[in-house]
Amino acid sequence: MRPLPAAEPEPAPQQNGKPDNQQPGPDDGTRSPAAPTPPAGAENQSDIRGSLDHAPHGLLDPDERDQQTLDDAVPRDPDGTPVRHPNPFLRWLKVLNDGGFDQPGRSNNCADCARSFLETWFGRPTVSAPRTPDANPDGTPDRTTPERDSYTNMERYAGAPHQWAGADHPNPYARIAYHLRQAGPGSAAFIGVTWPGGGGHAFNAVNHEGTIVWVDTQTGDVSPHPLHTNAATVSYIPLDADGHPLPSLYSDQTSPSGTATDEPGQTVGPAADPTAANYGSAPADSTPPDETDRSSSAAESPDAEDPTAAASETGDTESSPDASDTADRRTRAENVLGPEASRVTDLDDWLAFHGQKAEHEFAQALREMDEARRLLEENPGATLRTALEQEAPLRPNTQEALPEFDLALTHPDGTETRVEVTTINRPVKQLKHFFEAVHHGLDKALDRDRYDESLQIPRPRQVSIYMELGPFRSERKGMITELTEDGTLRRLRPDGVTVIGESNIYEDLRNHLPKIPGNESLDIITLINPSTGVSAEFTFGENGWQRTR
């Protein structure tokens, strides 16, 4: 197994507490039945707050109106149940620390914000609690001291110790992203950092439908790129999609003091981590999100010295596939491509890149072969390249590869269409379910557009989204809502006949696309049902976005 690179010793900051760590779990039996139960050893959010119900360095009860604001903003299933793993880019995240960072008690409550985010992420909407109104020695309001025992509280909450991510940026965040990718969609992490000058902060990261998203609910920041990249040290607690603690991906970890732990499965928790910080103080940095693409080499292989090893979803390491496995994967890719395989000019390179991945990752990568076949079938005479990531240019003044689209379709006249392939992993029932998939390609294009033309992704740029609608019919608050197979969305009176309103989810998407910042950096968006083919296609032109299929 791969040890983490040794980190240089860091001076321990003054510790007024340690971060909270509880697994999300129902605390009164009234929460959504869809929400998972906490693991053995974890404590509920209400238990943590109960131990902090007095000053100094405690928490106040949240205002019921703030809780209602969050309840109203959280996405819900047709039956009214709060959605688990809701889109973190939506409004609910902005009201989770209701009143905002500038309000008293909400600039030093990041530990409770991180717990409340996890509660909400796992289907139990919980607004954060403000800190007690403590004072500094000079009598001025104390806006930086965290809740007491914040580090320990987070471990109580999660039922597991912190894991050491490192002090060698950008690797700590790459390791966290890698861990969440292995855990799959719905997984999450509590992240605790220390600042170079002392103090610390707590925030979160999640795997939202395959995209790693970094979330700071105290400040309201959310980004597909890591936050707080000037941290001195980073530790984290990873959780699976049901909120249960995940084992370390490493059997040998290196503590901040540079001392390796040799016992299999041992993690660097508070006893081994002298940098355990007073998580809860106001963020000490104004660093913008690190827009380095964490889907590139650093995130895919946390240990650059052993790029052939991958970690399985169980936390065990997997060796690279042997020769027989590689041959089998070639056969699988060629079977997906069918007779179009002869027009893929670099299948060997694609297999060299994806064929070494863990099985579940390779199975996901085969979706690119589905799209390659579809594109070639629709474009007789065209050829296609599939291994663009290996040719991606470097970010200026770094050795980091810029984000790259998956496929390049070369037409008979020599022109090219670049294609990014992504999948929505749940049935689409609402317009918002499309948003993350659109951003998956758009974020790559926008990142490259910041540089000169030679580094930009060539146009036209297409995002191909594999998805399936989830037709439903439900009744809530005296109104029936139904989504049909063709995308028709109707709202009816309780008689089930009288139509109140009608639209089409695909047309709704077309109308929404112009509202997405930077949308003009894409040219084509194609929605594909794996069973029936293209459901809709939108093209950007002189008149904006139009549905062309």
UniProtKB/TrEMBL annotation:
InterPro entries membership: Tox-PL_dom
Signal peptide start and end residues: none
Superkingdom in the source lineage: Bacteria
Region (Disordered): 1-87, 124-149, 245-341
Domain Tox-PL: 108-220
Chain intervals with Polar residues compositional bias: 14-24, 250-260
Protein name: Toxin glutamine deamidase domain-containing protein
